[in-house]
């Protein structure tokens, strides 16, 4: 076997392992993004324990097949993959920020918690608040009933004669 073929097979095997352990995966077309923008995106992703891969479509297709991830079409054109770590939504948010300034970047496909997500739904996922935002919303809802009870007691106390 030629050395280059063996290297491609090794790349596909290592990507397969990473894909099978990923909580979220986004495939997007990055044609037109500068190296500076891609480097900035990688730094932001690294801070959230996410990763970005750029490889040939042949390696992607082989890795998706080996990882048994359904729903991915045969990829064409220059594609990159974002893989989420601890925070599954973080890669969606970071890519969405890039897409606001660079209209030519397009979603191709995505997976969240082992569920295939069509490109039409990927924008909606990016608008979901982060983990801290969701926790603060939950706490606000839990405190609402106690807060309303306290306001009610205070209002009754103010209207009652002493």
Write a brief structural summary.
The chain is built from six helices and five strands; from the N terminus they run H-E-H-E-H-E-H-E-E-H-H. The model has no long low-confidence stretch (mean pLDDT 83).
Structure explained in plain terms:
With 162 residues, the protein is of the alpha+beta class. 56% of the residues lie in helices and 16% in strands. The chain contains six helices and five strands. The protein has helices spanning 3-21, 35-47, 57-66, 90-101, 119-126, 131-159; strands spanning 24-29, 51-54, 79-84, 106-112, 115-117. A five-stranded antiparallel sheet has the order 2-3-1-4-5. It is elongated, with a radius of gyration of 22 Å. The mean pLDDT is 83.
Number of strands: 5
**Uncertain runs:** none
Give the integer mean of the pLDDT values: 83
Secondary structure tally, helices: 6
Strand content: 15-25%
Percent helix range: 55-70%
What is Rg? 22 Å
The major β-sheet equals: 5 strands, antiparallel
Shape: elongated
Strand order of the largest sheet: 2-3-1-4-5
Span from first to last CA?
95 Å
Give me the oligomer status.
Answer: single chain
């Amino acid at each position: 076997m030629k050395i280059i073929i063996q290297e491609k097979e090794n790349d596909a095997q290592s990507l397969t392992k990473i894909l099978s352990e990923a909580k979220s995966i986004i495939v997007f077309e990055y044609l037109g993004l500068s190296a500076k923008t891609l480097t900035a995106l990688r730094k932001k992703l690294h801070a959230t324990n996410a990763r970005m891969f750029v490889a040939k479509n042949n390696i992607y297709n082989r890795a998706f097949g080996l990882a048994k991830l359904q729903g991915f079409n045969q990829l064409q054109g220059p594609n990159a993959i974002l893989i989420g770590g601890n925070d599954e939504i973080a890669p969606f948010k970071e890519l969405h920020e890039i897409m606001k300034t660079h209209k030519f970047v397009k979603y191709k496909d995505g997976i969240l918690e082992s569920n295939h997500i069509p490109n039409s739904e990927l924008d909606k996922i990016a608008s979901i608040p982060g983990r801290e935002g969701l926790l603060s919303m939950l706490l606000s809802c839990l405190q609402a009933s106690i807060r309303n009870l306290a306001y009610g007691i205070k209002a009754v106390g103010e209207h009652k004669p002493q």
